[in-house]
Task: structure prediction
Amino acid sequence: MTKDIRQQPTRLPVEDHSAVAGAARGGAGFTMIAQVIVLCVTFGGTFVLANLLPPASFGLIGIVTAATGAGDLLRDAGLANAAIQARRLSNQQRSNLFWTSAALGSTVALAVYLIAPLLGGVYDNADIVPITQAIAVSFLLNGLASQHRASLSRELRLRATAAIDALASVMSTVTAITIAALTHSVWALVFQQLAGPVIALTLALCLARWWPMLPRRSEGIRPMLSYGFHQLGAQLAVYVGENIDTLIAGYRFSPTEVGYYSRAYSLVTRPLTQVNVPAGKLANPVLSRFQDDDEQYFRYLLRAQRLLLVVTATVIMLFAAIVAPIIALLLGNEWAPIVPLIQILAVGALFRVAAFSTSWVAASRGLNKISLYANLTGLPVTIGAILLGSQWGITGIAVGQAVSGLTSWVLGLVWFAYKAKTPSRQLFGTSAELLATLVLPFVGGISAVGLTNELSPWMSIASGVGAFALVYLLEVLVLKRLRADIRSVLSVVFFRGASRLKR
Result:
């Protein structure tokens, strides 16, 4: 009689390099295509919602998500990555992690629900209370899905994880647009925050094909709790650095001004998150397979960083170059103040993309303590830069956020070079080289937009894209290394390889 594979222990075997490469490339290609779809839907949804809802609605949801977003880190507590990174994981340990994650999700959901009146009092806005209480449910849903999604990543079922993220994002956006068209209220954005977790949980349960056993103390998870604790600390430090700007803006400025900043920040960082999360889910399980083989490990790390930067940084700077006519066309003059905010925040976003590599090292090699120290070192600089910038309004806050992105990236590289013997000099050199290639295309694109701003927005967008592409193409023709990077990206996109390995 064949044994049920769901009851077998999972481990990280020493895989054939070509097998891991096939899974990685097949998953990467599918993930890229899925994320292009998600980015288009996200961008389109953002503009549609901005036309259906007033800026104050985005200000309210921005304040609530910034104030409660740390709860999602607390309910996960690093246990998902702990399950992915563990060299061996028994079914009982995986079940214990599930019940721990479920308990954490329930506790955080209750805590967020109870602090809602306090949050409403701090910001002197009664509408914040029911919004916060509704969003509390998302923490429970995410807690229930955490280990099922980790199981898919551990097995390198990367197409499944990409499909979950893509479908959840698309359907939550469709839900928000539908409700906004019917009600024109902030509750469209609230249900957007809830629809994604509902869909992700449903898909994860169906695709993982695993049901947890009852918790037992016979097989402990203390090493994974330790791993998760340090990752949680590092993530909380990053969270504070990335959200202190919205909290300060919400305290000092009106909901409308916060709405402008929130939309600008979302247009830059939400697509970044759509890239970062699946990129991490792709990189971490693959790198974990080689955590005891430095040569292969760092080869994959450097290659993954180059591929990510070539695609992501190029898209960010193209968008920043042509954002003015896009806003004029899709949102109108009411939203014009977000244009300079987007361009400033885009610069900071480049440094945050470059910093993804150190977070992959921390997650895949169990070095979250080093990541915690690096993030705590950079946190005072971030808070100081944003507080100082707030003296000049929301534009100053955007500048402070961009400066903090640079300092956090550099400090992280220094810490990992010193404590983990990571090739930080190569990581920095690769990033600086690729980011430098975008300066001239950006100047060309934004100059073309400026020269054609008296024409229709469509003409201005076309001229900006054309100028950016022309300068970039010239660089590709001149720079041999950039040509190689472009070929690598194309090979990943069109590669049809295995996306799943044996357990």
Remarks:
- Confidence is low (pLDDT under 50) at residues 1-16, 495-503.
- Strands lie at 10-11, 88-89.
